[in-house]
Amino acid sequence: MRFLHTADWQLGMTRHFLNGEAQPRYSAARREAVVALGALAAQAKAEFVVVAGDVFEHNQLSPREVSQSLEAMRTIGVPLYLLPGNHDPLDASSVYTSALFTAERPDNVTVLDHPGVHTVRPGLELVAAPWRSKAPTSDLVGDVLADLPADGVTRIVVGHGAVDLIDPGKEKAALIGLATVEAALTRGAVHYVALGDKHSRTDVGATGRVWYSGSPEATNYDDIETDSGHVLVVDIDEDDDLRRVRVRSERLGRWRFVTLTRSVDDSRDVADLDLNLDLMPDKERTVVRLGLTGSLTVTDKAALDECLHKYSRLFAALTEWERGTDIAVLPADGEFDDLGVGGFAAAAVDELVEAARADGDRAEDARAALALLLRLVERSEVA
């Protein structure tokens, strides 16, 4: 038996830093990843698809977003099982119980709306642990495992949330206890645990049967989210008493969120950064966060600003990583000697240079004024 394990679609997700039309393209890409699951399911001959929580970004979605999402799910030609997670719990405002969702839900879509067993077919069951609020007071997965028998039925757990082995917040009541999960696996009550919440593809523990699929499309920078953009293809041998499991991943995601750190201390470093940004592919689907450190002259800082301004128009987003950025700007000796000004103007430039070499807000203003002066001089020379 083969099925697809995915999670954290978070349809309707927004990213405030995306440029102009990049946000609609990003939203469309998340729906396109859902459609791509259908092609993969057909190619892999998967029997069904499980989505282990956070199908939607939240419960307050626009009608258009709900309808477009359901239409994407309709294209998947096999049964699709959706688990409510912490972003879209089965609370009073749940999208899953809304009139629009109920009216337009495709026939292949089933919401795992109650904890415990859901029969796929004779001999095969899903054991669901849906979220009913954003703050559960117990281990929801552990709760549904408690009384399961080892009776020869193949069972797949579908859960959502952090596992105590890898989550630093050990005080959280809703943490999934890995020991409880592995005990159920060992006694043969369940045979695979499909998890959502962690957006990076992750094999949990040592059994090879507990996995986070990660989000099928990137949601955060690569120093935070290390292995997203995949779906898991899971095989369970139902003819084997041990129900041997084989897991492989297929890449679906096309977007990248890249953190780029560089030291920039002269014009050569600025040119090198320019080349690195130029060589990055798929700029329309790439978000870059820059962490730059170093010391530049006013001229080189102006060149850096022009470089970043150019690429901010090409990438889906190009942002400054405030925590990783520290550039000192200091006028070099003689940097403004060849401007061709004299008298009062020359004295004003000298005063700005002196102020720029000091500290404080006045120094920042002076550096900005000198950079503007350089740009104006360069434009007049071109004209």
Can you summarize this structure?
With 383 residues, the chain is an alpha/beta fold. It contains nine helices and 16 strands. It is elongated.
Structure description:
With 383 residues, this protein is an alpha/beta fold. The protein is built from nine helices and 16 strands. The strands form three sheets. Strands 4-3-2-1-11-12 form a six-stranded mixed β-sheet, with helices on one face. Strands 5-6-7-8-10-9 form a six-stranded mixed β-sheet. Strands 13, 14, 15 and 16 form a four-stranded parallel β-sheet that branches. Helix 7 packs across helix 9. It starts with a strand and ends with a helix. The mean pLDDT is 89.
Which characteristics define this entry?
383 residues; alpha/beta; six-stranded mixed β-sheet; 31% helix
What structural class do the secondary elements suggest? alpha/beta
- Number of spatially distinct domains: 2
Assigned CATH class of the largest domain? Alpha Beta
Q: What's the arrangement of strands in the largest beta sheet?
A: 4-3-2-1-11-12
| Low-pLDDT regions | none
The third-level CATH topology of the largest domain is Purple Acid Phosphatase, chain A, domain 2
| Estimated helix fraction | 25-40%
Main sheet makeup? 6 strands, mixed
CATH H-level homologous superfamily name of the largest domain? Metallo-dependent phosphatases
User: Whole-number radius of gyration?
Assistant: 27 Å
Strand content: 15-25%
